[in-house]
Amino acid sequence: MPENATVTEVTDTTFPEVLGSDVPVLVEFWATWCGPCRMVGPVLAQLAGERAGKLAVRKINADENPETMRSYQVMSLPTMILFSGGEPVETIVGAFPKARIEERLDRALKAPSL
């Protein structure tokens, strides 16, 4: 895994960096009390390393950033939203194995733009 590939935190204030990214960004909405979020964390770290330069991975603490939670109507944790070109293109709710997350990401990124 490349050392420069990390899952970095964004906030309500810094979220525009996700929307302005040149590469697709997978954002995990999580909370410290969320057990399934702890299961997904290592999977997302692996993806960040394996797809460095092609996919950015960010996380946002749902409890500390209610504005972004409301904006994207996040009702359950963990929720992962894939942004491409500043738009949400795929939403994954719940903790899934790495292969299933990769399948959803690949399908969304290969889909033709509307």
Automatic annotation (TrEMBL):
Key words of the record: Disulfide bond, Electron transport, Redox-active center, Transport
Domain Thioredoxin intervals: 4-110
Superkingdom, natural source: Bacteria
Residue ranges the record marks as coiled coil: none
GO MF assignments: protein-disulfide reductase activity
InterPro entries noted in UniProt: Thioredoxin, Thioredoxin-like_sf, Thioredoxin_CS, Thioredoxin_domain
Cleaved signal peptide residues: none
Any GO BP annotation: cell redox homeostasis
Gene Ontology CC terms, in alphabetical order: cytosol
One Pfam family cited in the UniProt record for this chain: Thioredoxin
Disulfides per UniProt: 34-37
Gene3D superfamilies with a match to the protein in the record: Glutaredoxin
Family: Belongs to the thioredoxin family.
Record-linked PANTHER family: GEO12009P1
UniProt protein name: Thioredoxin
